[in-house]
Amino acid sequence: MSLQYIIDAYNIINHPQFNHCARKSQNIQSSLADFIRLNRLSGSIKNKVILVFDGYPPHGQMPEDEGLLCVFSRMIEADEVIKRIVEESGQPRNIIVVSDDKEVQSAVRYLSAKISGVEDFICGKKSERKLDSICRQRQDDKISYSKMQAINAELRKKWLE
Question: Which domains, and CATH codes, for the chain?
Answer without folding.
Answer: 4-160 (3.40.50)
